[in-house]
Fold this protein.
Amino acid sequence: MTEFVSKMLQQLNSKSYRACRSQSTAREDEHPILYPVDIFGFHHGSNWRQESHGGNLTPDYPMLLNLGMDGIRQQLVTRISQSSDPERIACGERMLAALDGAMEICRTHRETVKKEGSQTLYKALCRVPFGPAESLYEALVSMKALIYCLRVENVDHIGLGRFDQYLYPYYLRACRLGMSREEILELLEAFFIELNYDTDLYIGMLQGDNGQSMVLGGFDGDGNSQYNELSQLCMEASLELSLIEPKINLRVGKNTPPELYEFGTLLTKQGLGFPQYSNDDVVVPGLISLGYSREDALDYVVAACWEFIIPGKGADIPNIRSLNFPLVVNYAVRDHLAEAKDFETFLTHVDAAIVKECKRLIDARKDTIFAEQPLLSVFVAGCVESLRDLWHGGAVYSNFGCHGPGISNAADALMAIKKLVFDEKRISPQELISALDADFEGYTELRNLLRECPKMGNNDDAVDSLASYLMTKFSDFMNGQDNGHGGIWRAGTGSAQGYVRSARICGATADGRKAAEPYGSSFSPALDVKTTGLLSVIQSFTKHDLSTIINGGPLTLEIHDSLLRNAEGISKTAQLVKIFIDMGGHQIQLNAINREILLDAQKHPEKYPNLIVRVWGWSGYFNELEVDYQNHIIRRTEYLR
Amino acid sequence: MLGTVFSIEEFSVYDGPGIRTTVFLKGCPLRCTWCHNPEGQSPRPEIVRSPNGCIGCHACERLGVYEDGRLRFTGESIRGCPQRLLRLCGEELSAADLCDRLLKNRNILQKGGGGVTFSGGEPLYQGEFLLECLSALKGQLHTAVQTCGFAQPELFSRVLEHTDYMLFDLKIYDTDLHEKYTGVPNAPILENFRRLVRSGVPFVPRIPLIPGVTDTEENLGALAALLRENGVTYAEVLPYHKMAGGKYKMLLREYNPGFDECQEPQQREELFREYGINIQCL
């Protein structure tokens, strides 16, 4: 770590930047401020608070870097002058006004920098973001300016996309011009530190859910690895800094070498909750079968968490609704269990309930009106050409994603019904319904019978195939449905906050879960299920063809931090991830956790200011989480040793 | 034949080469005062109660019985706990069933360059059962045995013939101290250790570092000398963790380790190096 980087880190950790902020309160909120050690600028003033107007996508950074805002403006002006459609002209003018506003902010900030900031930054701001970026540093400054301006426009969850790909030409240029590896690492580290400022002001479902995801690696259409020297430098920067931002996502596949998994596991060992891995061999074909072009599918990134989107091209809303699996199973139990003559008949009622609920979700979103986001539209391919807002037909893709929280709870519930109600006839349908109605009050023994049934995560075909049934019915119906906004629906295995929120509205379930108790996180075993172990878990969760349900939603594994205490443990844990990917897993994230530390942190938060955990698709400071989410993570560690 | 297993742990990374499943067999001839698997000591199944998540309803106690003034949980206690915190520790199953279960993960264990490790308790305490499992797995999965070494020479030799790998515990070199802290003399252990070296079966010696008991200069020096005499250049050391006492509560037992738990265990890497031995700390 260079002296400069350690100075920046010190500044970040001392939180002295809060004081800088208050000095600026006299200024207008949208006037960016500077810190004493600062080569990027564009920090929010203390009065600024983001509102959520939409986002959760990755702007077209290459467009910005190649053309600059002036170049894009030129295109926009030309398009407007060529159009005869008054609606489009008006939309184009709104984009133009937004772009001019952004450039005005940048110019004003340049003057502040000239007077009181780094002259290197001033020189860069004389060129970018207005003109094309010539150097790696200018590219980063230009990105920083754009991200700031988008935030001011209340775009939330702005991803960083394939950082190692679109910046690679700048990296090569830097090398050619004689910049050393250390100097480039220093620059990247400075930029990474920048991303850790202001995150407390960013809106999310919970503090920490801010969408600063960076995607590294991947494979091109010929199967060649795109993991390059810059990707490696980003990994090294993240490892050395051990900061929560940016959140690293690694694109991997069957040809990913073990060394990369091992380097990723070193990051996991830092307790940051990332990298998250996604499997190109499953995701790319899955996206193609949903209608994405091959070229775009090969370029996929993750949105804020793990939803697969196309950077710079998509106005996809991959988290717009969720199918509450356990709730749907409960509908079928209530309406049809008593009359069903056998389990297969009952399953057809579950299928019908899934379809009915999907239809309801689709209808509810058909006529939703989305507010325009003119500045964001400028940086989404297709909008300038068509003079349309990204949410109103401007973007190449406008698909909706539907999460599927509680898959394992629902499969476990079906398994218990099959075994106890139909196969063994130990519980009558009426008895089960009464027990569920009573939330198991007075039914402890019955509840324990339910809980002793086979559960997903034990590599047991009987229950895993029921999960597969649920997913198949969901994706068969949902994938490709018209969303009423020029796109389709896509089914996924994610839960997002649904493992708490969707679960709150679901009564007791036949897996033995009590009313309102949380589900497992995304595509993971249900809470409180003692699985036979990690080897069984990864087998259970790779049986289904996951390319057919590819909106996103990872297997989340909690591992005891002692597994990573030496090189042997690190290499074997890396191997476990590799095996999961090689077996056809679509996505995985690992939490290296020590339960005792989490329990102690709840009692003495002051002792653990930097304790980081993976929440649902992002890493957050444990102390900043609502207690329900803290407890969820602690419960996931119940059986770790 | 039937054996008693108290845990099967998948993805154990410190119990031999590659990714492994470790089978814990119940029953042990030793009573190490620092034992962190006290549920592995008695050969019989017993009911344990996890302290995590107890709501204090006392249902388990009401449904238990008192024998000689000591509370003993029953099957009713297990079924009556709303939090499901009680379980029968110690599953009786046949060697064939156990091996079927282990072979279910054969592909994944082989992909991970690993296999199955039998631990305990003391796996040789159920010697015939262990041998039956090892024979059944031969040629299908790599096997390892983690042992305290306290076993009849004849049994020990038969196990050596059937296992691919061994993890051999060495605790205290002085026989009186060994007896004081583990309840048994160490002569049979040292004999079996030499037997293991002669057999040519690949193995790793493991030394628990118990503060003030095994981690002293005299003891580690003597063990290092023993290793050097036998041409061993690598050993694993396992520092004592204060968490060790946690499980005794589950068995309604008190934990009296007989040494100062708060002392940091000494690794004495230097000392081992002087004897030409590399150590890895687990």
In short: The longest helix of chain B spans residues 187-199. Chain B touches chain A at residues 8-11, 13-14, 18-19, 21, 52-53, 79-82, 84, 104-105, 108-109, 111-113, 243, 280-282 (CB under 8 Å). The mean pLDDT of chain B is 94. The longest strand of chain B covers residues 2-12.
